[in-house]
Amino acid sequence: MLREINDLHQGGSAVDKEVRRLLAEAEDMGKRMSKKLKEYNKEVYRGWWDKNPDYEKDLDRRMNEKYITG
Predict the structure, then answer these.
(1) Distance CA 29, CA 55 (A)
(2) Could you tell me which of 22, 45, 26, 24 has the C-alpha nearest to residue 34?
(3) pLDDT at 3
(4) CA quadruple 50, 52, 58, 59: dihedral positive or negative?
(5) 35: Cβ contacts below 8 Å, ≥ 6 apart
(6) Under 8 Å CB-to-CB from 17, ≥6 apart: which residues?
(7) How crowded is residue 23: how many other Cβ atoms within 10 Å of its Cβ?
């Protein structure tokens, strides 16, 4: 979802302010959902996360990126 939002945003100035605002809201919602899902998965699949620390770092990095500007 975040990738699609970013791709749509790349439309540049053709994207009006209301669309940008809605995209930013969708991006924030997607990140909140991803964080909740990560918390749930870490509880349910404890051993897997311990064996894959690089995945968790990459996931955290992607959730902290700011895709939409302006």
Answers:
(1) 21
(2) 26
(3) 67
(4) negative
(5) 63
(6) none
(7) 19
pLDDT tens by residue, 5-55: 666 666 655 557 777 788 888 888 888 888 899 899 888 888 888 888 898
Q: Give the integer Cα–Cα distance in Å for 41 and 45.
A: 6
pLDDT by residue (tens digit) across 12-24? 555 577 777 888 8
Residues in contact with 26: Cβ distance below 8 Å, sequence separation at least 6, in sequence order: 1, 5
Distance CA(67)–CA(3), nearest Å, equals 9
Please name which of 35, 25, 22, 42 lies closest in space to residue 62, comparing C-alpha atoms: 35
Tokens 């990126």 -> residue: 65
Mean pLDDT value of segment 46-66: 85
